[in-house]
Amino acid sequence: MKFYWSLLLCFNVVLLSAQNDGWHISTTNKANYTGIVVANGRIGVLPSEKPFKTKQIILNNVYEKASQLGVSKILEGMNFGNLDISIDDEMVDETNIYNWKQTLNMKAGSFTTSFKFKDKATISYTFYALRNVPYSSYIDIKVEALQSLKIKAIGKIESNDLYKNPISTFRILKDLETTMPILQTVANTEFGRHTVATSATFIWHDINSTREHQRPELHHNKVSDLDNQLSFEKSIKKNNTLEFAWTAAQCTTQDFDDPQNESERFVIFNLLTPKSDLLKQHFDLWANLWEGDIIIEGDLQTQQDVRLALYHLYAFGRGDSNLSIAPMGLSSQNYNGHIFWDTELWMYPPILLLNQDIARSLVNYRSDRIKKAQEKAINFGYKGAMFPWESDDTGEEATPAWALTGTFEHHITADVGIAFWNYYRVTKDKKWLIERGYPMLKEVADYWVSRSTKNADNTYSIKNVVGANEDAPNVNDNAFTNGSAITALKYAVLAANELNIPANPMWQDVADHIKIHKFPDGTTMEHSKYAGENIKQADVNLLAFPLNVINDKETIIKDLKYYEPKIRIDGPTMGKSALAAIYARLGDANNAYRLFKESYVPNKRPPFGALSETATGHEPYFATGAGGMLQTILFGFGGLHLTDEGIVQKQPILPKEWKSLTLKGIGVDKKTYSITH
């Protein structure tokens, strides 16, 4: 244990050496590099450590089949983020630069790389996934000449060979005196599900870009249909500066009937809007997001870890989208970009407290797909709505058929219902409850009534499920499945009462009599045949928090002590965060802080501290883990509770390692809660 904490301390010191405040994370170290995505809820751009290079573009809610006989997979877009920059005919690359530094500015939603090229130039460039123009990205570039030099810049649209029938063009569009140079590639996805269109152009900030004779001459080079390039050359005198931008937009038939023309319009908008105005809109939208914030005084490293978690949830979501967030958000194609319980149980609760607009999109994503959930229930012989374990744009089951979770992990339907009632608890939006909330809760409750089996002793069992602990497939009366069903059924009754609608009496009857199995000493059993095996992640303990199905202190402590040692060391990060929140709510700050740190610090990856799902994994950024650690702070140390009267603070507690904790912008009233020793 001493060696473990020494490693963590060393890692934190390395990170802090390049940081100086709670909003910026910087690095000068490329070793074991794991990047940080810039995203706006529609597009995720993952910059590289290599100069002017981008690893990938991820398009939210745009799916193609993973293989001819496979399930859907979130689409890796055409890469518009790779530029080739040459100075005096020498390519800028890793071998001829020094003083390299990268900085994530979480407050501004930007990512900056800077370095010196030999003794000739100081260069910096900043990536933006524009929050105000969400299908587009903007790379702002600055070259300061240390001696007179000639620069050549090549912007590219690159497509991998999974794109079919590409059409790569360059056109100069004209309207009166305005000229608009547009590089463009349009192609079909591998199996023809979508057409993807990417447009791009250069912008010169110190030149009236609408007047063609004042701009550097542009050269088009179609290296291939999959490598479309646009370039310019310009001389810069010593001590002078060249500032320009490369902007691109990517649209698909998922969101547009005519993605080709729409992508052009977004690029034209960025081209002809002054940089100061365009970026101010982006900054203002990020400032609005940060009205919901968590401020930790006395522990800079934890402050940055927490802000990085919140930054990612904000970057991956949008309040105007009715889209959800996948476990890895827009940072990778991991888990095929599908939507799991990760959203409703882990990411959604902190978002619900801090940003109700994004929270509304997350629940509306489900109600927009309720028809498919109803069809699935019918197809498996049940009533109501039965949500898929993995969901994509269609709302049908997207789990690979070989995975038992897709056929048997049914608690997702209860998780959805719980999220819906909690949205109403916080917002008191009765119109939404009438139109979306209650119809969902009714269907969820009807499902659980039909899914339950009545026993001879008048109790109810839920048989043959995969629970939150996925290491135990096809069991009866899984604790979390049963606890979440109880909770969802009770919430349906509350929703009916709120609207003066008669509730189905079976909802309450089943909720009151679903079995939760116990060992002889009163410890909760993880399922009816559980015999003490190790588990993948928290299951029983979730009945204490967030479900509050188990609420007596003696049982909660028994369950904590029994199950903590049984969680696999390679299990996902959010398991221990739930235990940390429970200990905090019990008033045990020491165990809460210990588990809080254990829940995520081993999963941090250099140089920025991106979270992987497990302590041995390397796929960033695990948004589910971000949700778990934020819940520990909000619902644990912060003492916030979701109740039928709204958000209520009860007995907050502060770790001795922190001077104070401030929760800002909580709920619809944007309240501030401050906790000190």
Automatic annotation (TrEMBL):
One Pfam family recorded for the sequence: Glyco_hydro_65m
Keyword Hydrolase: yes
Name of this chain's protein: Trehalose and maltose hydrolase (Possible phosphorylase)
Originating species: Algibacter luteus
Alphabetized GO MF terms: hydrolase activity, hydrolyzing O-glycosyl compounds
Ranges for domain Glycoside hydrolase family 65 N-terminal: 37-208
Lineage, opening ranks: Bacteria, Pseudomonadati, Bacteroidota, Flavobacteriia, Flavobacteriales
InterPro entries for this protein: 6-hairpin_glycosidase_sf, 6hp_glycosidase-like_sf, GH65_N, Glyco_hydro_65_M, Glyco_hydro_65_N
Location of the Glycoside hydrolase family 65 central catalytic domain: 307-503
